[in-house]
Amino acid sequence: MSILKTTCAVAVTMACTVGAQAATISVSTFDAGAYNSSFGAPNHVGEDFENLGATRGEGEVGPSLGTAVGTFESLGGVGSGGSVTGTGEELALRDGSLFGRTNTVPQGGSWFLDSNDTWGMKWTVDIGSLFDQLSFVLNDGSDQGAFLRITAGGESKELRTGGKLPNGNARTVVIDFGQQVSTAEIVLGNYTTSGGERFKLNDGFSVDGVDVSAVPLPASVLLLGVAMGGLGWAGRRKARQA
After folding, report:
1. Which one of 27, 31, 115, 156 has the minimum C-beta count within 10 Å?
2. Closest to 113 measured CA to CA, from 162, 65, 149, 75
3. What CATH number is given to the structural domain containing 155?
4. Residues whose CB is less than 8 angstroms from the CB of residue 236 and which lie 6 or more positions away in sequence, other chains included
5. Given a cut of 50, is residue 19 above it in pLDDT?
6. In whole angstroms, how large is the CA radius of gyration of the chain?
């Protein structure tokens, strides 16, 4: 087993031994200057959809979209609003501005991931290492009657509880898992009522500026990985000499 695989296996085992703990979800008004200045800090893994957009072009992304921060999939439903592109069954990469949805990170960029008026999206977070917190920007949610709900780590939070939000509203979402995790599932779903379970179509929203806080491996784990790698090398050497 390689040093990297040994180290990762030990790290994941350490994460699994931590007791289950509910995540904390906070939502605030998006501050472009503050968010952009901190985006991509050391030990963070970011996704601003700029490279994906430039490579794939505008339009639906297929059944799922693999990114630097994991995989995004539609929750289902077929969008039919004026902002829909393609079949209306899949999420879409979009360029520029669309019904109040626009690029938020980086400043001067142009691409974002759009719900394409479906029920919403499921995001399986995976950066190839442990993480404990993440943030992202939600744009233009809950302005056409839907209650946009964020669910993660056994907790949920709605973007609104009263009247519709303004067109093009931008919100910063921070999710703190309270422990080190190797993967997480986040659902961004549009519902017809607050706290309800019935999905609603045609209240599109976008996601941009995803920033996941990776947890550096402790020195003890790195040393263990080196030691295990050394044992493996010694074993192979003995086998060759036999």
Report:
1. 31
2. 65
3. 2.60.120
4. none
5. no
6. 20
Domain count, the chain: 1
Mean pLDDT value of segment 32-58: 97
Residue 61 in domain:
yes
User: Is 2 within a domain?
Assistant: no
Residue 216 is predicted with a pLDDT of: 81
For residue 117, the SS3 value is coil
What residues have CB less than 8 Å from 145, skipping those under 6 apart? 164, 192, 200, 203
Distant-in-sequence contacts of 62-70, Cβ < 8 A, 24+ apart:
62/90, 63/90, 65/91, 65/93, 65/113, 67/210, 68/127, 69/45, 69/123, 69/125, 69/126, 69/127, 69/134, 69/210, 69/212, 70/123, 70/124, 70/125, 70/126, 70/127, 70/183
**pLDDT tens for residues 190-208?**
999 999 999 999 999 999 9
**Rounded distance between C-alpha atoms, residue 136 and residue 166, angstroms:** 19
Domain that holds residue 95: 22-216
Determine the Cα–Cα distance for residues 85 and 15; give it in Å rounded to an integer: 41
Q: Is 177 a member of any domain?
A: yes
Candidates 220, 212, 141; CA nearest to 176 is 212
